[in-house]
């Protein structure tokens, strides 16, 4: 499913989107489909599946550890696409990974495989806009969205450039830092949301981990929230994973209504 | 500034790092020719670092190998390695930019130590990230850093060496961009770091030019330097790029030139790596078929890195610089031989450059006058050597 279609559906229902991140292959490749199913069943609108990279510089300890578990358990680029092809959920799927894994396959090859597997968008935290010209062209041809990130310290000039080149949605990094559960979300996010001049949906991520955070972001004008570490921590606990994932997903989704 | 060297270089970083990289580039362009900045830097280089360093004619080694061998004595720089040339420059720049805090990665601990020195001298809060494997094998340097008031953070992720220390330093920088300067220790990372570090290290090559002219009346036939990230190599090579001088970058051949899906049993990224993206730059990288970065291996912690500076990758590709490698065993033999022949104990990193000259002296490719960059002294490696001899 296209990302834009999902956002239109939600608009009609007057709801915001819950975007759920998990690392593919964590704790092992066979378990990921049941985790994705649980998230979607409980209300996640879009699934972001990490393709694990050995050196994830934009990630905090929680997702680093997930990445290690997944690679140890045998997740690789080939099995990633195979696994995604086998998923039976009807929500947009986004691939989140680092640029070297794409570069090594050849961008065109990688993007074709994404399209083939039913992936609708790409998030690459170490690929800033000015290095992405080639990839943007390729993605356009294959109908894959390029989701770029903006941060609290991004200049107005870059904000405009990023807004005009992004597709799918704009990913707003809530804080200076890496991924991970946070206590408080900075009140500056509202200002950043206001400043972005674009028709695309605006999704806030990094540090969002509970219902209160979600409600604050929705009140501040976000069209979507991205939650990752909160899910990954549950997966890491190995304790009643599926039912706890469903429970927190329902609660977070309530905050989007 | 152009961000690329041929196809290598660029800025593959999280969006949060774009403003500080831009700020750094602008500050560097502004201050590098500023009289106040250059006069302070030159004063520090002379009176704090102890520059210029001698170009020493290694008579006994020359006699043994039948060619003229000069050693550029960067081991005599304060702290015991060339690393201070770069840390003085960057820390002074950070001071002019109004930064309050320095962070750095370190492999051998030499760059961490050189950062700790400038942190103490110039009044920065200083934090150094170091892989836990390196903490173990370079303990004297860990203690030196602590003595100078630097906090050393042991990094326990991934291969637990310099690659992972850089990851952690980048994460710190992303979190503390406002008041913190990331003082990167080699010609690696996103633009403008490879250029800035190369410029600050080029003092080595500029001195060699004058010194060798004085004693030989001409440039050497060859210059040989070890290459981890490539800063001592770029520093001595750069002023000679347009001259008829052969340039050899000696990488760590480790145990053997073999790789599996996770580990490279060497660190020869120029010689055997494939194009990829690591730590913000497109360069030659040790990686598996999927693009996962391999753990590298070397007896010399400072060479134990899966990437290499983008400019050096470019110069190797064009053939201007010849990449080559030396195994752990060969480096150890050279370490012992230089100690006995000249009374100079080299760093295990620098011993790779020595070993290459020993190995190739007969082959003719070096010519008859060679300058070796003796990038550091070996005191930090004594524990490693003692452990191996047990
Ligand atoms: C003495 C010495 N030589 C060489 C190196 C390798 O670094 P580079 O290749 O940047 O000169 C190090 C790094 O720690 C070092 O300590």
TrEMBL record, chain A:
Pathway: Amino-acid biosynthesis; L-tryptophan biosynthesis; L-tryptophan from chorismate: step 5/5
Subunit comment: Tetramer of two alpha and two beta chains.
Reactions accelerated catalytically: (1S,2R)-1-C-(indol-3-yl)glycerol 3-phosphate + L-serine = D-glyceraldehyde 3-phosphate + L-tryptophan + H2O
UniProt-recorded Gene Ontology molecular function terms: tryptophan synthase activity
Domain of life: Archaea
Protein name (Swiss-Prot/TrEMBL): Tryptophan synthase alpha chain
UniProt KW keywords: Amino-acid biosynthesis, Aromatic amino acid biosynthesis, Lyase, Tryptophan biosynthesis
This enzyme's EC code(s): 4.2.1.20
Function: The alpha subunit is responsible for the aldol cleavage of indoleglycerol phosphate to indole and glyceraldehyde 3-phosphate.
One cellular-component annotation, GO: cytosol
HAMAP family hit by this protein: Trp_synth_alpha (MF_00131)
Keyword Amino-acid biosynthesis: yes
Family statement drawn from the similarity comment of this UniProt entry: Belongs to the TrpA family.
Active-site feature positions: 48 (proton acceptor), 59 (proton acceptor)
From TrEMBL, chain B:
One Pfam family per UniProt: PALP
Domain Tryptophan synthase beta chain-like PALP: 49-376
Gene3D superfamilies: 3.40.50.1100
Pathway in which this enzyme or protein is active: Amino-acid biosynthesis; L-tryptophan biosynthesis; L-tryptophan from chorismate: step 5/5
InterPro entries for the chain: Trp_synth_b_CS (IPR006653), Trp_synth_beta (IPR006654), Trp_synth_beta/beta-like (IPR023026), TrpB-like_PALP (IPR001926), TrpB-like_PALP_sf (IPR036052)
Modification N6-(pyridoxal phosphate)lysine, positions: 83
Keyword Lyase tagged: yes
Keywords: Amino-acid biosynthesis, Aromatic amino acid biosynthesis, Lyase, Pyridoxal phosphate, Tryptophan biosynthesis
Catalytic class of the enzyme: lyase
Cofactor: pyridoxal 5'-phosphate
Entry EC no(s): 4.2.1.20
GO MF entry, a single one: tryptophan synthase activity
Any one GO cellular component localisation term in the record: cytoplasm
Keyword Amino-acid biosynthesis: yes
Catalytic activity: (1S,2R)-1-C-(indol-3-yl)glycerol 3-phosphate + L-serine = D-glyceraldehyde 3-phosphate + L-tryptophan + H2O
Recorded coiled-coil stretches: none
Family statement: Belongs to the TrpB family.
UniProt subunit comment: Tetramer of two alpha and two beta chains.
Its biological purpose: The beta subunit is responsible for the synthesis of L-tryptophan from indole and L-serine.
Protein name listed in UniProt: Tryptophan synthase beta chain
Organism: Methanohalophilus euhalobius
GN (gene name): trpB
């Amino acid at each position: 499913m296209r990302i834009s279609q999902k956002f239109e559906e939600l608009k009609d229902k007057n709801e915001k989107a819950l975007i759920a991140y998990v690392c593919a292959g964590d704790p092992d490749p066979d378990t990921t489909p049941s985790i994705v199913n649980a998230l979607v069943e409980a209300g996640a609108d879009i699934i972001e599946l990490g393709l694990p990279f050995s050196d994830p510089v934009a990630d905090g300890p929680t997702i680093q550890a997930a990445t290690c578990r997944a690679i140890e358990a045998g997740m690789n680029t080939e099995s990633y696409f195979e696994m995604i092809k086998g998923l039976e959920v009807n929500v947009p799927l986004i691939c989140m990974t680092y640029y070297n894994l794409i570069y090594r396959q050849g961008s065109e090859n990688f993007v074709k495989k994404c399209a083939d597997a039913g992936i609708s968008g790409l998030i690459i935290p170490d690929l800033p806009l000015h290095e992405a010209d080639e990839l943007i062209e390729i993605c356009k041809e294959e109908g894959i969205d390029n989701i770029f990130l903006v941060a609290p310290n991004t200049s107005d000039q870059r904000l405009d450039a990023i807004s005009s080149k992004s597709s799918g949605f704009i990913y707003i990094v809530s804080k200076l830092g890496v991924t991970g559960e946070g206590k408080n979300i900075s009140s500056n996010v509202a200002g950043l949301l206001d400043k972005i001049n674009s028709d695309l949906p605006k999704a806030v991520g990094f540090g969002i981990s509970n219902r209160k955070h979600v409600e604050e972001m929705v009140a501040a004008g976000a069209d979507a929230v991205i939650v990752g570490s909160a899910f990954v921590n549950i997966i890491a606990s190995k304790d009643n994973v599926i039912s706890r994932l469903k429970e927190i997903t329902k609660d977070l989704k309530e905050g989007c209504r | 500034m152009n961000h690329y060297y041929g196809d290598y270089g660029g800025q593959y970083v999280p969006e949060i790092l774009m403003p500080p990289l831009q700020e750094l580039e602008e500050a560097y362009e502004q201050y590098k020719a500023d009289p106040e900045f250059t006069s302070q830097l030159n004063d520090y280089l002379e009176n704090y670092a102890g520059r210029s360093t001698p170009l020493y004619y290694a008579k006994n080694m020359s006699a043994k190998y039948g060619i003229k061998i000069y050693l550029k004595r960067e081991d005599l720089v304060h702290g015991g390695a060339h690393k201070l040339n770069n840390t003085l420059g960057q820390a002074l720049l950070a001071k002019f930019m109004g930064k309050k805090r320095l962070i750095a990665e370190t492999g051998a601990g030499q760059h961490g130590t050189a950062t700790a020195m400038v942190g103490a001298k110039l009044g920065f809060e200083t934090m150094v990230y170091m892989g836990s494997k390196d903490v173990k094998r370079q303990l004297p340097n860990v203690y030196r850093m602590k003595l100078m008031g630097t906090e050393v953070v042991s990094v326990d992720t991934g291969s637990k060496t310099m690659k992972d220390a850089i990851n952690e330093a980048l994460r710190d920088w992303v979190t503390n961009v406002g008041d913190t300067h990331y003082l990167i220790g080699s010609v690696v990372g996103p633009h403008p770091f490879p250029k800035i570090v190369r410029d600050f290290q080029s003092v080595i090559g500029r001195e060699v030019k004058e010194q060798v002219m004085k004693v030989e009346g001409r440039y050497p036939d060859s210059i040989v330097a070890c290459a981890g990230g490539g800063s001592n190599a770029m520093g001595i090579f750069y002023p000679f790029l347009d001259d008829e001088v052969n340039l050899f970058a000696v990488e760590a051949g480790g145990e053997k030139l073999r790789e599996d899906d996770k580990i490279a049993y060497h660190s020869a990224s120029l010689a055997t790596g494939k194009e990829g993206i690591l730590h913000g730059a497109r360069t030659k990288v040790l990686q598996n078929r999927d693009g996962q970065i391999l753990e590298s291996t070397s007896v010399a912690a400072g060479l134990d890195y899966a990437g290499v500076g983008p400019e050096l990758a470019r110069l190797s590709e064009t053939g201007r610089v010849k990449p080559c490698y030396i195994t752990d065993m060969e480096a150890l033999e050279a370490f012992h031989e230089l100690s006995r022949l000249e009374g100079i104990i080299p760093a295990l990193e620098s011993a790779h450059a020595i070993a290459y000259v020993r190995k190739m002296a007969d082959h003719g490719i070096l010519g008859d006058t060679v300058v070796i960059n003796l990038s550091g002294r070996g005191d930090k490696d004594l524990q490693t050597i003692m452990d191996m001899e047990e």
